[in-house]
Amino acid sequence: MSDFWAMGGYAWYVWGSYGVTTLVLVLEVIALRRRAREAKT
Amino acid sequence: MKWFWYASPQTFYPLAGRIARWSALGAAVLAVCGLYIGFFVAPTDAQQGEAYRIIFIHVPAAWMSMFIYVVMAVWSALCLALNTRLSGMMAAALAPTGALFTFIALWTGSLWGKPTWGTYWVWDARLTSELILLFLYLGFIALRASIDDPRRADRAAAVLAVVGVVNVPIIYYSVQWWNTLHQGASVSLTRAPSMAATMLTGMLVMALAFWLYAIAVSMVRVRCIIRERGE
To answer: Considering the entire predicted model, what is its pTM?
Structure first.
């Protein structure tokens, strides 16, 4: 399992990519949910 | 299909909600499948080791960044030509998601460039034109935000979007027109793809997931815009 997270020494590059992508998409969904709630009132 | 029926924001509103729900569900399912293929089925690359696994988000995000821009420009052209209310709203709904995918393409490309090229950034034609795409999206958003009257904002931003679309073929063909550090296309409609079948499958599944994600969020956003404008 730790082999998997190590990504053959490329952990920062691979997880840095996937982490930021996930973060950006999650933030967009959260912001949009808030906007949708405000638009309804 | 009664296209003109749905061209009115009021009638499009419930349809957009249904499209958003189903697209979001599809995006979630496909993302799980795509990530499973990408991390557990696709083999380690002979040259790049595990670093190549960035491909499963980098290439789909880059495709989406260009594709969303073209769709945005088409809606903008419709807004200018027909002056329909919904087209300007659709263009506005797509811009933030397009900008995010452009940012993701640049960010993941940078993190992929370091281990393979030895640098996070280089002013090569592909990278520079993609950066210009990000500025076009941001310019579109800023221009709309700076004009109070929504219909005028729609039209002004639409001009920017339509003019800026020339940048998309420049990005796409940059690797052929200039001598770039960025590699040429690994996937094209005319040649057999130059990668293992499982890698290609993972990439296409992720592309489909991003596609459905973009549809879902832009549909939710257009519903917000319709409500905010009191339609």
So the answer is: 0.94
